[in-house]
From TrEMBL:
Molecular-function GO term, any one: glycosyltransferase activity
Location relative to the cell: Cytoplasm
Protein name: Hypoxanthine phosphoribosyltransferase
Keywords assigned by UniProt, alphabetized: Cytoplasm, Glycosyltransferase, Magnesium, Metal-binding, Nucleotide-binding, Purine salvage, Transferase
Cofactor: Mg(2+)
Positions of the Phosphoribosyltransferase domain: 17-167
Enzyme class of the recorded protein, top EC level: transferase
Gene giving rise to this polypeptide: hpt
Amino acid sequence: GSWYDADIDHVIISETQIRDKTAELAKQVSADHADVPDGLLLVCILKGAAMFMADFARAIGRHGPPVELDFMAISSYGQGTTSSGVVRILKDLDRDIAGRHVIVVEDIVDSGLTLSWLLRYLESRSAASVEVVALFRKPEAVKVPVPVKYVGFDIPTEFVVGYGLDFAERYREVPYVGVLKPEVYARS
Ligand code: PRP
Ligand code: MN
Ligand code: MG
């Protein structure tokens, strides 16, 4: 077994569900952007979206348009379990996005604060279009409504970890999404 097995209370989204949904999202995004002239620019929001980006980009590669990858690191959570609303850029885009068709690749939309800030930021840089794909969304937690064109799973407002989602930087490598046992929070 793995070190984290004892910490997970239950699984809410399995590896198979993640794999199937990623293929489905990639198919939709590919169909909607089949003729985009310079391909799509996928912008991964580190660190949470790293796992999804890697799998989603390869899924697009099977049938979709060419993609380029860029990465931004922004943080609104720090060490806690709730969003502070304070967004910091830790790593900016490497290249100019003017005129590009951008797909923001996020692991989860929770309060929406990170994305609403980010969409304004990307639009101010004159992208031709900016759309969002998020693998997970907590619909009951939304504080700022954000237009997320492609959503994988709506999940309950519980603190979940795995497939990129962390608790104090740990559990990102868990291949499924699960709920931590309450005593794990009490420990920190
Ligand atoms: C998490 C998650 C999303 C964001 C969603 O990132 O990966 O990016 O919070 O929350 P929101 O909708 O309430 O803004 P976090 O800031 O924890 O950084 P990380 O990706 O490095 O874990
Ligand atoms: Mn994140
Ligand atoms: Mg986090």
